[in-house]
Request: fold
Amino acid sequence: MNRTTLVRLSGAALFLLGSWAAYTQNPPPAGPLTVNKVKDGLYEIVGDGGNVAVYVTGEGVIMIDDKYEQDYAPIVEKVKSVTSQPIKYIINTHHHADHSGGNVKFAPTVEIISTANARANIVEKKQPNAPADMTPARITFTDETSVFLGGKEVRAKYFGRGHTNGDAVIYFPALKTIHTGDLMAGTSPLIDYPGGGSLVEWTKTLDGAMKLDFDTVIPGHGNVTDKAGLLKYRDNVEKLRTRMQGLVRAGKTQAEVAQVLQSEYGWAPDSLPMKWSLPGIMNELK
Ligand SMILES: [Zn+2]
Reply:
């Protein structure tokens, strides 16, 4: 095993460990958050939960995702470190608690938007062990919506199923930048079948997003990348699907497929991907 493979594998393991912790009922204490400049007027807040995007306009801030409830105060502090403008809108990329958990604290003062499916998934408690006070968006859309503020636009678009059945891709047209939510996260896709996810649809959904005119990508988890980085991720999703389909159609048992996921993809036994994705893979790829 060469060094690159090792680094990639440990990255995957870290992400899987992180997501495992991320979805348990009592998340670890909020770690330190960091704010990075992505482009002029656009920042990301990383650490704990999913990557938050902060778009500053002359009339307020539009934010993408809000991590866990426990991250509310640190997020507000990080936004204050880059602008004195108030947070006016939050767009949730999907219903998971590491992306929408902060809604409960922001809802009294901020307008929150998501896909209709992401809202329904919160209302119907589709995420096992999500905190009891998960708060859904007040405003929803099914295909596309935009927020116009201070002469700037943020567009949110639903391209189809993937990580869940309600993933929004967020587009900042003036900056040629997108935020993918967990349609790109870590190194190996987590297919949330109970939340409507689909390994078969995932690549088609990313193909839709690839048609946007962008050069910079903020993933749901992990480092900012570019269009080539997203394409590579998409191709890896396809490779996983092809590999899984071959095994399932060859009549392999769930336990045998689990072995392959463990040895070739670093999915730990009893990890979240094994629990959420494997039974759905066996069913969807028949
Ligand atoms: Zn997620």
User: Anything to note?
Assistant: Residues 94, 96, 99, 163, 182 surround zinc ion (CB under 6 Å). Confidence is low (pLDDT under 50) at residues 1-26. The chain has ten helices and twelve strands. The longest helix spans residues 227-249.
